[in-house]
Amino acid sequence: MGVRQIRVVPDEVLRQKAKKVPAIDASIKQLINDMIITMRQANGVGLAAPQVGVSLRVIVIEITENEPFAIVNPAVVKRSGERIVVEGCLSVPGYQGELKRSEKVIVKGLDREGKKMRINATELLAQALEHEIDHLDGILYTDRIGSEGKLYKIEEASSATGF
Structural domain boundaries of the chain? Predict the structure, then answer.
């Protein structure tokens, strides 16, 4: 299929709780491939299936020094610490915001072959994991900006990190 359309607010699929993937078959593997292509074309760091209109619990992430990877049915099993970050979102174009994210997270799920995986993450990877898993629960980063946080309008050509 290839590049898919990235859904933007106020698209309703972004607010739905995504369904658990019952089995990793050829259609899920194709979805993962399409999501990686779409994320790269949009210069994103991560992408969740709802962002391409598919309400399933699948995310892909590519941090510059790593190969892209997918997690099916991801769940945060532990969070620790707290830090203020600036992030943007491919589904909320033209904005970035300051919000609190965890310093460290442990996430479990399945890889694209259905094998169990566990990731201990810090810094940008931890932030990306939290951001993408939020998408699977219908939560946008703008929902996490509290009274202390800020939302900024940015230039479209800005180099803000997009998930």
Answer: 12-153
Provide the CATH topology of domain 12-153.
Peptide Deformylase (3.90.45)
Between 148 and 10, the more confident residue is 10
Q: Report the pLDDT averaged over residues 92-99.
A: 94
Beta pairing, strands 83-88 & 95-101: antiparallel
For the entire predicted model, the pTM comes to: 0.93
10 preceded by a cis bond (ω within 30 of 0): yes
Mean pLDDT of the 130-147 span? 94
* Residue 133: other Cβ atoms inside 10 A: 22
Alpha carbons within 13 A on the beta-carbon side of 64: 3
pLDDT at residue 1 in the model = 75
Residues 109, 115, 118, 121: is their CA dihedral positive or negative?
Answer: negative
User: Per-residue pLDDT averaged across 8-24, rounded?
Assistant: 97
Name every residue whose Cβ is closer than 8 Å to that of residue 105 and which is 6 or more positions away in sequence. 76, 78, 79, 80, 121, 126, 129, 130
The residues annotated with a catalytic role in the active site are 132
Measured between alpha carbons, how far is 48 from 116 in angstroms, rounded to an integer?
19
Helix (H, G, I), strand (E, B), or coil: what is residue 134?
Answer: helix
